[in-house]
Amino acid sequence: MRAEIITIGDELLIGQVINTNASYIGKKLSEIGISVARIVSVGDVEKEIIDELKYALDNFEVIILTGGLGPTHDDVTKNAICKLFNTRLVFNESVFNQVKEFLAKRGINQINEANKSQAFVPEKAKIINNYWGTAPGFLFEEGGKIVIVMPGVPKEMMGMMENFVINYLAPKSGENVIKQRVLKTAGIAESHLYEKLKDTVAEIEKFCKVAFLPSALGVKIRITVKAKNSSEAEKIINEAEEKIKTKIGKYIYGVDDEELEEVVGKLLAQKGLKLAVAESCTGGLIADRITNIPGSSRYFERGIVAYSNEAKIQILGVPEELIKIYGAVSREVAEAMAEGVRKISGADIGISTTGIAGPTGATPTKPVGLVWIGYSDKNETFAKEFRFGDNRLENKQRASQMALEILRRKLLGIEI
Amino acid sequence: MRAEIITIGDELLIGQVINTNASYIGKKLSEIGISVARIVSVGDVEKEIIDELKYALDNFEVIILTGGLGPTHDDVTKNAICKLFNTRLVFNESVFNQVKEFLAKRGINQINEANKSQAFVPEKAKIINNYWGTAPGFLFEEGGKIVIVMPGVPKEMMGMMENFVINYLAPKSGENVIKQRVLKTAGIAESHLYEKLKDTVAEIEKFCKVAFLPSALGVKIRITVKAKNSSEAEKIINEAEEKIKTKIGKYIYGVDDEELEEVVGKLLAQKGLKLAVAESCTGGLIADRITNIPGSSRYFERGIVAYSNEAKIQILGVPEELIKIYGAVSREVAEAMAEGVRKISGADIGISTTGIAGPTGATPTKPVGLVWIGYSDKNETFAKEFRFGDNRLENKQRASQMALEILRRKLLGIEI
């Protein structure tokens, strides 16, 4: 079963509102095995709505349409639908009672014309109740095609989807379910990842789909499977994951919504280790990410944002000569920062960053994007050099991610 | 001039990625008077891309297409474009040099096949340089139609839009323009803001549109104007802004994309003052935000994330008895933290946060969401109590925003 989603509203076209409705509906339909082939947004223009609906009816089995059902003058969806299905708007007593009841609950007892107009619905349609607002949804089913029309207010649309639409469509879909899994990697470029996985991908693409999605926090590998039922989909996806892990397992830090700070936090808590962080170019971002995780006070001792050289010397114990000789952005200072914050705080592990986030601060030998990341525990202290890009915020992101990734690998005994 | 936006990628259809690209492009085109009539998302399927492009070419003058240009096997946009425009992919030396240069800056000197494939571009097309990634964009102009193709990575697409596309299209458009301005407030609830502005909004809505958009960082007031040309739109929007400012000016910290950390940073730089921050519940978020601003090293001396009590005592000089008597989350400790970080660092101003971000850590008298924010300069030290919500990340956001807002008001001599 294939579907098209049509979202109506000028606010979508001029970029005033981001189309979260379409992604929500896309996700819900995928989960019950209906594959969304197309998403279209058009304005509140009758002809364009009708044209798009005709195209959708010619090509797909399910059409979900949202928006343009409000009581104001610019909402034209109902008329467009009536023309297309050769029906007319009729007053529906039961919808009218619902509208009155909904408003009464909010202390509104005076019903105006705009409210009343909500009770006019296409004669041929089946009504979908709206318990979250005043505009009813409706449904047409004809010749193997299903058209579902809902308001564009996210809360109302989501209420109808969860309360009615999903339950109505799921048994009709019957065939396939779509499942996805995202494997998140850090510390390897997309092209290198692809090189290492080319053959594996060719092999597993016989029974699923693989996509590479790069970002400042690393490359995500998304596996998509279509199968007869949920357990079969799970089986296929697990096999694909295993095959990928065999090749590049060490780069994968998490699955689906798992964040690196969460993974690292769990490892620290399990091992009963305390962490302290000394940041220069990341400016507090590492501490911020670590403390986003509930319960992080168990393993996070302190963070020092040593932006000035004085702070590096005074609270991290970095020897002044090191800064003089090698500069603040250097292997030596990164190591001294990591070791300093560990020793002074009494934590088990110290990590540090020092670099040139940009856009200013570069020197002939030290370009924007140069970052040293330091690590120190009771057995060893070292620092690694990275060259990121020229975007300040992205450099902070990337440096924070690599610092956490180095920590993850050390905690797991993976080579860096 | 009417436009269609085509966004390509399975991740959009299954709801894994929200289509922010389309709304960004829609907004940018509206601002230069090009009206977006239609937004379509389809998967990485050659035939569907071609069909949609044909429809768009038949109906609109401008077509903007994003996505499916990466170096991996699932990116099919380039082939689709070649078939449609009856051209072929040719190796472009100058693009290849750019790709190599881009990778070299990131320390990657080994060019693989996937990287090299980026340098194959449609023979007939004009190249749009990509300084933010490796996939070039391109442009076809034929028979009064303009087709622009860009990568789907938001940063790359936005770079090309701002660097090239808008400048290229703006002179060709020349019609009605839509302008928006956002006034950003902090430290006042939406309902209170609305009460103060009700009459003003009724008055200015005669010639423009006003919307209130609440978030964890405060309430934004958005003014939208449609006018014949840019200078007329500017005039109307300036008048509306003035009227709003007369009523609630002290709550407005910035306009449009201006962030509070940027506003505060400018004030500190102007006054030649140095800031130090001592954070507990915000966990580094304030330091992170401050150091997001280029040049912040001029006024940001250090940040201390004193998550443990030991850190508060050891590096901020908070007296141990204060924590014992009043608890770490208290007026007394917030004040001692702000004063401590200021004195020890030698900065002019110290700010601090201590609170219960949640979900754990609450006591019968100290609920989740309770936060004390401290401020200290050479003349005074004080702390203010806030009650935020029960969402950890939002509590961090709100506390960081209020700390910066208190700083802003102190720097401007506005009552708190």
UniProtKB/TrEMBL annotation, chains A, B:
CDD domains, per the entry: cinA
Q: Which InterPro entries match?
A: CinA (IPR050101), CinA-like_C (IPR036653), CinA_C (IPR008136), CinA_KH (IPR041424), Competence-induced_CinA (IPR008135), MoaB/Mog-like_dom_sf (IPR036425), MoaB/Mog_dom (IPR001453)
Taxonomy, superkingdom? Bacteria
Q: Where is the MoaB/Mog domain?
A: 4-172
Similarity comment: Belongs to the CinA family.
**Protein name (record):** CinA-like protein
A Pfam family it matches = CinA_KH
Organism encoding this protein? Kryptobacter tengchongensis
Under SMART domains, the record lists: MoCF_biosynth (SM00852)
